[in-house]
Amino acid sequence: MDGADVGSFTHSVTRIATVSIALGIAVMLVSFSILQGFREQIQGKIFSFGAHIQLSRYDNTNSLEVAPLSEPDLRQRLGAYRQVVSVQPFARKTAIIKTTDEVLGVVLKGINEKHGPNSMRQNMVDGKFITFTDTAASPDIVVSRKVADKLRLKVGSEALFYFIQQPPRVRKFRVSGIYQTGLDEFDEVYVLGDLRQVQELNAWPDSLVGGLEVRLRDFKQLDRTFDQFYEELPYEVRVEKVTDQYAQLFDWLQLLNRNVIIFLVLIIFVATFNMVATIFIMILERTKMIGILKALGASDNQIREMFFFRGVSITLRGLLIGNAVALGFCALQYYFRLIPLDPENYYMDRVPIAWDPTMMILLNVATLVASGLAVLIPTYLIARIKPMVAIRFD
């Protein structure tokens, strides 16, 4: 093999190693961004209905309708916790919706003006949110796309709600908007309305509510805050974590996290293995050069450093290309929504993207460190190369 052939072969191997690193980091960044976006979207939909912690009164039955709580008393207690960012009242009332052609059982969830628009805006697909008034309970409701399709409702339609109580009550509501989360736990059950409607139906004063939804500054503090609430709040108050209320969804997200971690480890392993093979080939092709350098007085460590920095240079070039490809793809998907999804199967209408600079940096650092350590392995072959034998090597 002449010098030109050797150079050409080494160049090809180096290019393969660079492409391997670039593809590895690009796939990792895109995969993590999609997973993180998927998790944030699902959690956001759950939190829009249940916040982080829900407080209600203990009840011996499993009914969605429970005894009321005194909002001012609990709100004052919750104000002492720094991790609490907001407290929103709610109340639920089971009902039967009757239209001209259809009948459907639902749960009317009453919310107030401060709670609804911000948390539900991401789920609205048609119409507008409830228009609250200062003088009376609003007749507006927001129904899910599934409920609207089943009952053949659209924005502006009116529907009769029959409430099973003593005496039975009937209310006429107007559909002001339609939401869609993609989660059957919400879409098939809940209709959103004015909290004052439920209070009037139950003959409650303004100070009584069905429960309180508590949002925290940091979701990671959920378990610790839950333990504090459980120990310090009155005994008649039931404290429920959103992760317990919707355990199946959060277990599923946790399983996805484990799968992605295994996937990332495998990609890093393949990329570093390619780097080991590349450096081995470079050392074997430059055996004569190594012998000459040793004959001229170069130490093993000096020659080893030369190959080490060559390997790091290849890794850095691959990381640069891979980051450019990954960030470009993520930006295109984030702004132009090029890849759609079926909401019936994936809970959202497009592939989600989340931007997490910290994790992106960590993935790059992990790949660089792993590749750097892998490059050291073949360089120890240099110590076994004898100058006289290497000079004669062809």
Walk me through this protein's architecture.
- This is ABC transporter permease.
- This protein has two domains: 3-44 and 250-392, no CATH class; 59-235, no CATH class.
- The chain contains 14 helices and twelve strands.
- The protein has helices spanning 3-50, 71-78, 116-120, 145-151, 184-187, 195-201, 222-232, 242-245, 247-285, 287-295, 300-336, 343-346, 357-379, 387-392; strands spanning 53-57, 69-70, 84-98, 103-111, 124-127, 140-144, 158-163, 169-179, 190-194, 208-209, 211-216, 237-241.
- Helix 1 runs antiparallel to helix 9 (247-285) and helix 1 crosses helix 11.
- The radius of gyration is 31 Å and the shape is elongated.
- Residues 1-6 have low confidence and may be disordered.
Task: Give the end-to-end Cα distance, rounded to a whole number of Å.
Answer: 8 Å
Order of helices and strands: HEEHEEHEEHEEHEHEEHEHHHHHHH
Mean pLDDT: 86
Number of helices: 14
> How much of the polypeptide forms β-strand, as a percent range?
15-25%
Derived structural class: alpha+beta
In total, how many domains does the architecture comprise?
A: 2
Q: Give the total of beta strands.
A: 12
Shape: elongated
Rg computed from alpha carbons, rounded to a whole number of angstroms: 31 Å
Low-confidence stretches: 1-6
Largest sheet: 10 strands, mixed
Can you give the helix content as a percent range?
A: 40-55%
